[in-house]
What does this fold into?
Amino acid sequence: MAKAANAESALPLRVSRVALMPWVRRIVFYALLLALWQLVAKAGIWPDYLFPGPLAVAHTLVVGLQSGQFLQAALVSLQRLALGYAISLVVGLVLGLLIARYRIFEETVGSLILGLQALPSVCWLPLAILWLGLSEQAIIFVVVMGALFSITLGVDAGIKNTPPIYLKAGRTLGASGLALSTQVVLPAALPAILNGLKQGWTFAWRSLMAGELLFFTLSLGNLLQNGRDLNDASQVMAVMVLIIIIGVAIDGLIFASIERRVRERWGLVRV
Amino acid sequence: MFFQTQASNTSTIERFSASDRSTPAGIPLKIEGVSKVFVARTGTVEALQPVDVDVTAGEFVCLLGPSGCGKSTLLSIVAGLESATSGSVWAAGQKVDGPGTDRVLLFQEAALFPWLDVQQNVEFGLRQAGKPAKERAAIARHFIELVHLKGFERSYVHQLSGGMRQRVAIARALAIDPAILLMDEPFSALDALTRDRLHIELESIWLATRKTIMFVTHNVREAVALGDRVLVFAPRPGRIVQEFRIELPRPRSLEDHALVDQAAKITAVLRDTMGVQEKEAANGKSS
It folds into this structure.
C-alpha cells in the first residue's frame, strides 16, 4: 500500500518504472520457474532422458533449429495450417452469410453447425484416415473441421448484430443488395467476425498438432511423436517450446494487432 | 455540373451556388393520409394518425413535437425506410416505394461508417451510383470543403468531434445531390454552440441549393430559426395539431425579438397539447 501511494505521488521517471513493473515480475517469475525446473532435473529423481533440464532442452532446440530439421517441420505444419485455414475462411464466410441471411439455412445448416461445434475436431481424424488414408488431404480435412464452424458462427453472429443505423444509412444513400452486404454489413460485422476467426485459428492449430501425431512425414506433430519413439523427452519438450512460440507469435503478431486496430477504429475502445 | 476544385473558399461557395442553378433544386413532396400502426405483443400502438402534408419545392418544413409523436416515423416513411400502414407519399409526383437517392435521411447520430475515412464516407453514395473514381473524389472534396472540414479527408470517425461527424454526414448526404433532405434531429446530440454554428451553415447551404428540407426537432427555437413552416405534433396518438408559417427574414438570429415571440407562441401551443397528458400522468386534480 505504502509503496503504491509513494509511486503515485512520484516523478514521471517513477511512473515509467511503475509501467515496467509487470515485466519485471514476469521475468523474475520465469527465471525462478526455470531455476526450479533445473534443480528438479539435477536432483536425479527421474532419468535424464525422461526429465531433462531446461539447459538440455534449450540445447536440443538450438541443434534442431541449426540442423534445419525443426524449421522444415514448422514450415510443413504452417503450410497445412494456412491451406486448411484458407479453406475454412472462404467456406465459413459463405456459410455464415447464408445462415445470417436466410432463415431456412439458419434452421437447418445453422443448427447442424451448432451441434458439430460441440465435437472436438480431432474426433474427425479416424474418419478422415478411413476415407482419405494417411494423406495430406486427411490432415487438411481435420484442420478445416477445427476452424470452419467457429468462423461460420462468428460471421453469423457479427451479421445478426449489425447496428441497424448502419443499414439505414447505407440504404438511404442508395446501397442495396450485394453492395449493402459487402460494403456495409460485412465491415460492420468485422469485430465479431474477427472473434470467430481468432477462435477458428486456435482450434485449427490444435487439431493440426493432434492430427500430425499420427503421420509419418516430417512435421511438428511428427517430431513430437518421433521424440517419444526415441525415448528423447528433450526433443519432445524442445518441439513443445517451438509450438508455443509459433502459437504465441501468430496470436500476438497477427490476430491481436488486427483486433486492436479494428476495435480502435470502430470506436469500441476509447483512445 | 461539377468543376475541378483547387480554389479558395469563397470561390467554392460561388461555384456551389452557380452549379446548383443549373441542377434541379428541391422537388415538391406530398404526404397523403399517411399513418403508422405498430403491432406489438401487448397490442397495437397507433404511432401516427393519418396526416396530410404538402411541401412545395425548396421549402424548409420543421416537424416539431415531443418524443413519441410520430414525427421521426413520418420521416422514415418519407425516406422509404419504413412502410406506411395507410396512405402514400409522392415525391415530385412519383409514388415513394422504398429508399431513393432523391431523398436522403440524416440521423441524430451521424451514422458514419467507422471503417471508412471522411473522404470515403462522403464518396459512399456516389460509389453506389456508379460514379467513376476521379469524379467521386472531386465531388467529395468539394463537399468536404463546403462543410469546412478540409484537411480531415483522411481522418477516421473516432478521431472527430460530434459536430464534425454531423458535418461529414451532411456532406455525405449532399454529395449525391438529393432533391429532398430529411433530417431527424441531426443536431440534438450537440452542444449549444456547435448547434448554433451548424444552423447557420445549414441555412446558408439551403439558401444556396434550394433543396426541399424536412427537419424533425423537439427544440422550438431551432424550428423557428430554420423553418418556413413549423408543423406542431402531439403524442399518443401521433398527429399534427397546428401549423405555423414563419415569415421572418433570413438569415435569422436566435436573439431576434420577433423570433423569440414566435417561439413563445408555439411553445404555448405545445404546452397545451402536452398539458392534458402531463396532468393525467402527474396529478389529476391540478387545474
User: Anything to note?
Assistant: The domain at 54-265 of chain A is CATH 1.10.3720.10 (MetI-like fold). Residues 128 and 138 of chain A are 5 Å apart (CA to CA).
